[in-house]
Every structure is written in structure tokens, then in C-alpha cells.
Specification:
By secondary structure, the chain is an all-alpha fold. The protein has a domain of 203 residues. The protein contains 15 helices and no strands.
Length: 375
């Protein structure tokens, strides 16, 4: 009788969930890679066809006309934008305050730009815990902050369709934005269904996790189920009051992006007679769902906006519009990263130390109160 070893097939232990996740990761999410490759090919084709007639020297001349004092004007607009971006966090985390939520939002956005996921979530939770907020509650509010922005992002073309009849152009390819509106309606439906109860939340989490897993093989539906259940427990209270206000704040951030773009265009020298607020607004609203791509849709969204602007205002607007969009991108993509670095340093040397000192003081007070009274 031969002795069986642990390496025999019959005695091999079943793979753990971590091992299964690693195996799926080794296989690679081929669907997402295929989709990403197709998108890259499409974007490169559109960019080449759009920009091959662009006069680079004219773009550079337009950029050189931007006054040196322009950052002084853009900075307060950018700060207002970031406050709107973080406001949903403060709505779903009452008591934390808008200041801390803005510091948290700026820091996590910068972390996600320089470090792989989930570095931004880890930093968010660490900051909230330093302020006395438990992890599940912080994660639920973070998820809702993202969800409200996604809903507003995919709803933006709705206003574009309302304004489009005021321009002398037809919908054309803009009909594809109906898909974006469908996504927004789907997200709202999911949020409302999750709030019905913990069991319903887990069921929806499993279903959505299973759908995402078909595209991204490393996704664990059970993790999604637990996240949705925690979301339901922590955010169901006064949701009818908080949800509309968080949507309004996210819409305010989208509006500030448009304001910064308009200011950049006026600084470049594009007059209202050359390009009206309506023309810029319609182009921006229809292209805004493309911010779903990396770096807020850098290149993809800009190409879509440029195509719309040249359709309504003529091809001669292309060079100054490109120069304005370069300034705009610096303000809404690069500048927030610098603000995020400052926010992290501010938390590291002020808020975090204050929280630790407060915890030590509370511990000392507790120790003193537990002592038995002397006879």
C-alpha cells in the first residue's frame, strides 16, 4: 500500500477564493482589453482625421495670448468646483463638514492619479477614521458620492437635447447619447431598489457583480453584495432629503467645468459673436459622458466637442478652440492634482495630528474617570 502525498490529485485541497481570483487575473479580462483596443483605434482615427488640417502655429499663438495673471482668476473658480465635487460627501456624512470632505476628495483624486487602485479608497478611509468616522459608513458615503456623479454625468445630454433645437443643426450622431440617458436611468433605478432592504441590496449586488465579472474577471460578486448591503444600512436614513441635494451639488461641479471652459475661451480671444455660450454648452453637455474614460476623457471628449463646435461655428474656430481646451484641461486635470498634494500635506500635519491628540486626550480622561474614588 503506497502512501499518498498531499500533492496527489485526490488529496489536493480546493483552491481558496484568493487563488481563484489570482487565476482569473492571470487569464486576463480579455473582453475589457478588446473593448479598450477598439476604443483606442477609434479615437486615434477620429483625432487624425480631425486634426490633420489644424495649424499648430495658430494654436500656439492663441495660447501665448493668455495673460500671466489668469491663474488668479481660475483659482477661485477651481476651488468652487472642488467644493461642489466634495459636497455630496458632506451631505451623506453629516457632522464631518464640507472642509474635511473637500480635503478628503482632493487627496483621494490625487492618490488615484499616482498610485494603483484601491489607493484612493484606502486613503479616504484612513482620513475619515482619523476624524472618528467608521470605515463602513465612510465607504458607503464614498460610493454614493461616486454614484451621484455618475448619474449626473450620464444625464448631461438630456439638457443638451433640450437646448439643441435652438441651434441650426440636427441631432446626427448625438442620438447615440440616448444610451447615456438609459445608463443614468438604470443607475437611479438601482439606487432606489437597493434602499428597499438589506436582502434586496445583497441580491442586486450579486447580480451586478456577476455582470461586471463577465468583463473584469477579478471581480468578486460576494464583495459587491456586501458593499451594497452596507450601503443600504448606512445611507437609508433621510435618503429622500440627501439624494436630490447631492445630485444638485454634482450638477454644480459640471456647471463649474463649463464656466472654466468659457472663461478660457474668452481669454484666448473667442468672442461671443464667434462662439456663443449656447454653442459651447451644447457641445459640452453631449460630450460630457465621455469623461468616463481616463483623465476625464482627455482627447476623446475634446475631439467630440471640437467636432460639434466646428459644425455650428465653422472650421475657422478650430485652432482657438483647441487652445482654449488646452488651458481648460490644465485647470481641471492638472491643477486639482496640485491642490490634492497640498490637501494631503494639510491633513498629514494638521488634521491627522489633531485627531490623534484628541484621541489621546479622550483616552486620558477615560482612564481618570475609571479610577475608584478614594475613601
Amino acid at each position: 500500500m503506497t502512501e499518498q502525498t498531499p500533492t496527489d490529485a485526490g488529496d489536493a485541497p480546493p483552491p481558496t477564493s484568493v487563488e481563484r481570483t489570482l487565476r482569473r487575473h492571470k487569464k486576463g479580462p480579455w473582453v475589457s482589453r478588446l473593448v479598450a483596443t477598439a476604443i483606442v483605434i477609434l479615437v486615434v482615427t477620429v483625432v487624425v482625421r480631425t486634426f490633420r488640417r489644424i495649424d499648430v502655429a495658430t494654436v500656439w499663438d492663441a495660447l501665448s495670448s493668455v495673460p500671466l495673471w489668469s491663474p488668479l482668476l481660475f483659482l477661485p473658480l477651481l476651488i468652487i468646483r472642488q467644493i461642489f465635487s466634495a459636497a455630496p460627501l458632506s451631505i451623506f456624512l453629516p457632522g464631518v463638514g464640507l472642509y474635511r470632505c473637500t480635503i478628503n476628495d482632493l487627496s483621494s483624486n490625487t492618490a488615484s492619479a499616482f498610485a494603483p487602485a484601491p489607493s484612493d479608497i484606502v486613503l479616504r478611509v484612513a482620513m475619515f477614521r482619523s476624524w472618528g468616522i467608521d470605515g463602513p459608513r465612510a465607504l458607503a458615503a464614498t460610493a454614493m458620492n461616486s454614484m451621484t456623479f455618475y448619474i449626473v454625468r450620464f444625464s448631461a445630454p438630456l439638457l443638451g437635447f433640450v437646448l439643441l433645437p435652438l441651434l441650426s443643426v440636427g441631432p446626427g450622431l448625438r442620438w447615440f447619447d440616448l444610451v447615456s440617458l438609459f445608463i443614468a436611468a438604470f443607475l437611479v433605478t438601482v439606487v432606489l431598489l437597493v434602499l428597499r432592504g438589506r436582502k434586496e441590496a445583497r441580491r442586486i449586488g450579486l447580480a451586478m457583480g456577476g455582470m461586471v465579472r463577465r468583463v473584469r474577471g477579478t471581480t468578486d460578486p460576494e464583495v459587491w453584495a456586501g458593499g451594497f448591503a452596507s450601503f443600504q444600512e448606512n445611507l437609508s436614513e433621510r435618503f429622500g432629503y440627501r439624494f436630490p441635494r447631492s445630485l444638485a451639488c454634482s450638477a454644480g461641479m459640471v456647471l463649474m467645468d463649463l464656466v472654466i471652459l468659457l472663461v478660457a475661451m474668452r481669454m484666448i480671444g473667442i468672442r461671443p459673436d464667434d462662439l456663443s455660450i449656447l454653442e459651447v454648452g451644447v457641445a459640452y453637455l453631449f460630450a460630457f459622458p465621455l469623461t468616463m474614460f481616463p483623465a476625464q476623457g482627455l482627447g476623446v471628449m475634446d475631439t467630440a466637442m471640437l467636432a460639434s463646435l466646428t459644425e455650428t461655428a465653422g472650421h475657422e474656430i478650430a485652432e482657438p478652440a483647441i487652445a482654449a481646451m488646452i488651458v481648460w484641461r490644465v485647470m481641471i486635470v492638472a491643477a486639482p492634482l496640485l491642490l490634492g498634494l497640498a490637501a494631503m500635506l494639510l491633513w498629514r500635519f494638521t488634521g491627522r495630528n489633531a485627531a490623534v491628540a484628541g484621541a489621546d486626550t479622550a483616552a486620558g480622561t477615560s482612564d481618570g474617570s475609571d479610577e475608584a474614588p478614594s475613601a
